[in-house]
Amino acid sequence: MVNHLRTGITVLALIILIAAGITALSPPGQASAAAIEFTDSINAQLDATADKTGKNGSKLRKQYTDFKSSRTQILSLDDRTSALHYDNESKASAVRKAIGNIDASKISKLEEQVKTTKSKYQPLYTSYTSFNKQVAAANKLKDKSLYKVLKAQAEGMKLVVDITKQDLKSKEAALKTAKSERTKKQKQIRSVLSEIDAVKTKIKAEKSAISTPNKQLTTEWSNFKAAVKKNDADRATDTLARLLTLSTQINTKKQNIYNHESKISSIIQRANSMLP
């Protein structure tokens, strides 16, 4: 019994989490849009109410048509905004990945050159060190003849060692410069992409501002359905007027969101154009 109860609670918790996830993923305004449906029943009730109100019937029908048109525009705007948003996320991700790969091949080649050069010259450096130890030992033994011979050979070897060290130093400098240039390029492009953060803050503010008119819209829609069900033309006209006002407010804010997403798109394009 206890196990069944625990299983039931676990399943219920999962359902709640899944539902919450779906709600969180829904584009702003989608839930309210789904709550407003222009069914055949409501259309028929609107026509009946308009017929009974006489000469004002055309006004009521126009208000209703305008509101339906406004909702269609909002749904279309939602779709375009959602598509643009996901496109922006995908492209921004691609640019960030590309930033990490800037000059990767060039730097890898220079790193390999440094590694190969070090490996190539190491036996010479080892021999030179060993030879200098022999010079020091001969000097310590006071063997002037051997010391002079070894010293001369060591000095001749030093010339070769200095040339190879200069060669290695040159390759290491080229690698350092390439890494520095890469860092500079990456910093510049990331700086451009960072402009997105401020735009996203504006989007968040617009989405938050939509919440109140969305709730009011749902309430007024319920009032409208009740009015046409009772063939109350005056109340239906008043609620439609408020619905149109609220819908216009929502549409304006959603248009702002779309414009912000368009700005993000431009920022990403600018960053992408800076990639080598």
Task: Please explain how this structure is put together.
- Residues 161-188 form a coiled coil.
- Keywords: Coiled coil.
- The chain has helices at 2-25, 30-35, 40-52, 57-100, 104-140, 144-193, 195-229, 233-273.
- With 276 residues, the chain is mainly α.
- It folds into 2 domains: 30-100 and 192-273; 104-185.
- α3 (40-52) runs antiparallel to α4 (57-100), α4 packs parallel to α8 (233-273) and α5 (104-140) packs antiparallel against α6.
Write down the overall geometry. rod-shaped
Percentage of residues assigned to helices: over 70%
Let me know the average pLDDT: 86
- Estimated structural class: mainly alpha
> Per DSSP, what share of the residues sits in E-state strands of 2 or more residues?
under 5%
Features of the shown structure:
single chain, 276 residues, mainly alpha, 0% strand
Topology:
Elements: H1 2-25, H2 30-35, H3 40-52, H4 57-100, H5 104-140, H6 144-193, H7 195-229, H8 233-273
Helix pairs in contact: 3-4, 4-6, 4-8, 5-6, 6-8, 7-8
